[in-house]
Specification:
The complex is a heterodimer.
Chain A: E1 2-9, H1 13-20, H2 23-29, E2 33-38, E3 43-52, E4 55-69, E5 73-82, E6 85-98, E7 101-113, H3 115-119, H4 121-144, H5 156-173
Helix pairs in contact in A: 1-4, 2-4, 4-5
Chain B: E1 7-9, H1 14-23, E2 28-31, H2 37-42, E3 50-53, E4 63-66, E5 69-73, H3 78-83, H4 85-90, H5 92-99, H6 104-109, H7 112-118, H8 125-131, E6 135-140, E7 143-148, H9 149-152, E8 153-155, E9 158-159, E10 166-173, E11 178-187, E12 194-204, E13 210-218, E14 225-226, H10 228-234, H11 241-248, H12 265-287
Parallel strand pairs in B: 1-3, 2-3
Antiparallel strand pairs in B: 4-5, 5-10, 6-7, 6-10, 8-9, 11-12, 12-13, 13-14
Helix pairs in contact in B: 10-11, 11-12
Classes of the chains: A alpha+beta, B alpha+beta.
Chain lengths: 177, 288
């Protein structure tokens, strides 16, 4: 399955890049992430309790970062498995500075197998998109805080509120009524 | 196919159900018809600690008129909706939509409230209640509140229901004046879920022109939505074939369509256009 998308964050490219490779920020921003540890130079181990609605599963996974070219590009290789299925994939993240904003473009290829793939196939892409939106909304808030400032609070409401206000901004900028 | 262990409670009243839910907001789940939750539990994709069965609360199953509204209890089954003489007469979109759901067994057991609260991206009811501007009555530990259908569906399987809240009632304004409705659907051959589903409610002026159009779309995005660009392109027109054909071209505007092994996003949008056109034409014919 191909995954592609683009999110605009209100922070400099350097800040966004730093946040994207910072395990503490990632743990706070990956939806349902219970554990994220550095296991090597650019490798991490994670436990994620992911799900939408009543559908939930726990996944153990490994993440490896490659081709690091700060602050514009890296490649992410992911492998995870849980009782509900497994996933394997890799993708490229590219960061573009656009005035005060940074645009993150991602594209990747993911294989999903097991129960989730056989019965939840029609929802996998939607789930991925929803989690990506939550992740980047959170990351945008993290990247906006200054160095030394305490990290922003996250929770369903705060994330939803940020998502909504971001949407409003876009809505008014494009001038569509 | 054996679910993880769970507790089961069948309260006699809705208030008891709310109290039970509040005792474990994260681990408790409401069970209505069980046609989405039970399969997910058998596959262990869902592992609630406690099921609060509201299907046995008799006072939650009804269809009645009150003032200028139609009130529908949350555990009213698809079959009750399909066979309701009242709905067939005053709001046929609801009975047509019910008739298109699953098979006889599913319709006998599945409920309108369960389907709306689950917010399956391919569920039929979300499209219909959006097109009818329904109000949803939600009961929680802090009392009752109402939410417009348009604000209720948040994202994939996600609604504005808070943990501990139960969808109690669906309220629909009785259609009046000259109007026509239609539900058009492409069912998935295996599951019966909507690959695309289009619910249309047209209000016409006396001269036959379109006063307003409301179009609910399911199956295409991560949640059901109103096709506002299509509605705007139809309002005020005579609904001739060319107008309809050019209006439905906007059915996927602003939507990133779902893709799976059965249908690509592009194919889904194409289906949505074709079936929106047919649904609008059918609704127009019924209004005349």
């Amino acid at each position: 399955m191909k995954l592609e998308g683009s999110h605009q964050l209100e922070a400099s490219r350097e800040r966004v890049y730093q946040s994207l490779v910072n395990p503490e920020v990632l743990q706070r921003c990956i939806p349902g992430c219970e554990r994220l540890e550095r296991t090597g130079d650019n490798t991490f181990a994670a436990t994620i309790r992911a799900g939408v609605g009543s559908i939930k599963g726990v996944f153990d996974g490994k993440v490896r970062l490659e081709d690091l070219r700060e602050p514009e590009h890296f490649r992410m290789v992911v492998e995870g498995k849980g009782a509900a299925g497994f996933l394997k994939g890799s993708g490229n993240l590219d960061l573009e500075q656009d005035g005060d904003f940074t645009r993150v473009n991602y594209s990747g290829d993911v294989q999903v197998g097991g129960t989730i793939a056989s019965v939840g196939q029609r929802m996998i892409q939607g789930t991925a998109k929803m989690m990506a939106t939550q992740f980047f909304t959170c990351l945008g808030a993290e990247a906006k805080t200054e160095v030394g400032e305490p990290p922003p609070q996250h929770g369903f409401f705060r994330t939803a509120l940020r998502w909504f206000s971001g949407w409003l901004k876009r809505f008014f900028r494009t001038g569509r009524g | 196919m054996i679910p993880a262990p769970f507790d089961y409670q069948a309260p006699a009243t809705l208030e008891e159900a709310v109290t039970l839910l509040a005792s474990d907001p994260d681990g408790a789940k409401v069970l209505a018809g069980g046609h989405s939750l039970i399969p997910a539990m058998k596959l262990r994709l869902a592992q609630p600690q406690l099921l609060v069965d509201i299907a046995r609360i008799k006072s939650l199953s009804y269809i009645r008129e009150e003032g200028d509204q139609i009130l529908i209890g949350a555990t009213t089954t698809h079959y009750q909706m399909e066979s309701s003489e009242l709905l067939q007469r005053i709001c046929p979109l609801l009975s047509d939509c019910a008739r298109s759901i699953g098979d006889v067994q599913v319709r006998n057991k599945g409920t309108i409230g369960g389907s709306i609260a689950h917010s399956d991206p391919a569920g039929d009811w979300p499209a219909a209640v959006l097109a009818l501007d329904a109000e949803l009555v939600l009961l929680g530990p802090n009392g009752e509140r109402t939410e417009n259908a348009g604000d209720f569906f948040v994202d994939l399987l996600t609604t504005s229901l808070m943990p501990g809240e139960i969808l109690r009632e669906i309220r629909i304004r009785k259609p009046s004046g000259r109007f026509g409705q239609a539900y058009q659907k492409v069912p998935h051959p295996a599951s019966g879920f909507a690959v695309v589903g289009i619910a249309v409610h047209l209000a016409l002026n006396d001269d036959g022109s379109c006063r307003s159009a409301a179009i609910g779309v399911t199956g295409v995005g991560t949640k059901a939505y109103r096709a506002q660009a299509v509605e705007a392109a139809l309002a005020g027109t005579n609904l001739d074939d060319n107008t309809i054909a050019s209006a439905v071209a906007h059915i996927c505007d602003g939507i990133d369509p779902n893709a799976d092994l059965y249908a690509t996003g592009e194919y889904r949008c194409h289906l949505a256009q074709v079936h929106a056109r047919r649904a609008i034409q059918a609704a127009k014919t019924k209004a005349q």
